[in-house]
Amino acid sequence: MDNVTVRQGESATLRCSVDNRVTRVAWLNRSSILYAGNDKWCLDPRVVLLANTKTQYSILIQDVDVYDEGPYTCSVQTDNHPKTSRVHLIVQVSPKITEISSDISINEGGNVSLTCIATGRPDPTITWRHISPKAVGFISEDEYLEITGITREQSGEYECSASNDVSAPVVQRVKVTVNYPPYISDAKSTGVPVGQKGILLCEASAVPSAEFQWYKDDKRLAEGQKGLKVENKAFFSRLTFFNVSEQDYGNYTCVASNQLGNTNASMILYEETTTALTPWKGPGAVHDGNNGAWRRSGCAWLLLLPLAHLARQF
């Protein structure tokens, strides 16, 4: 028995070799007659006579589907005795994902079970992989993916791929969101001169995103408070002082919280004094960021120059 393999939706040609001794020919599908000679017996419009010559008797089945798969018989009657030849039609079907888990949100430390069901002929191979720069290769070669004690690093998209070499693999993705309490990753003290603009920054990672609050000592700072601006984003909060005064210096606490917990970090806004030399404006003319304060220190510095020169001569 010969095999004829076609993909679903293609056309299949079934051929039967004959000679001049043949008096009658017919094609049968199991026990149903499709064609007898030139006469069509079946009602299926997809089945047509392709050739009826002294050497070949062939039919064509168009737009093949899975229910067309099976044995086909060419029956030949000669003067001496009847004989038959058989062909087995194999229909290949591209993979198709028929069921896949929905997107999921889970707290860190929980267990995750993902499912991906696919059909096709031959049966498709199913693989799972984590779409992540750190992920390497497949993490499962099964319909089911089990993750025990999931961590925040394992959040992201998971891709199910179904392949059977009939066509290109089909893929679908599931998004796994891992919830965890806030973690403050950056909170640094800052030095700012009086009268300048100062910024305290608090960075925190959390899922869902953290809500931020600022405190000076034990007093909560309100949005819109004179001279201050609190800017909250998904992963950071910025506290801006537009004109720092002596009263602004001190200890500040950033509190980050979500449904799973909260954390805090303290930082200090302190006074910073910087002295910068500017081009000469006359004897002892030294200018710094504090509006010319400590000019006398510039004069003392200049007096040291001739003393150093005399010391080298001795």
Written description of the protein model:
With about 325 residues, the chain is mainly beta. Helices cover about 5% and strands about 55% of the residues. The chain contains 1 helix and 23 strands. Strands 1, 3, 4, 5, 8, 9, 11 and 13 form an 8-stranded mixed sheet that branches. Strands 10, 12, 14, 15, 17, 20 and 21 form a 7-stranded mixed sheet that branches. Strands 16-23-22-18-19 form a 5-stranded mixed sheet, with no helix packed on it. The longest helix is centred in the C-terminal third of the chain and has 19 residues, at about 295-314. The termini are far apart. About 20% of the residues are buried.
Name its key features.
single chain; 314 residues; mainly beta; 8-stranded mixed β-sheet; 7-stranded mixed β-sheet; 6% helix; disordered C terminus
Q: Ends: how far apart?
A: 117 Å
**Tally of helical segments:** 1
What does the average pLDDT come to?
86
Estimate percent helicity.
under 10%
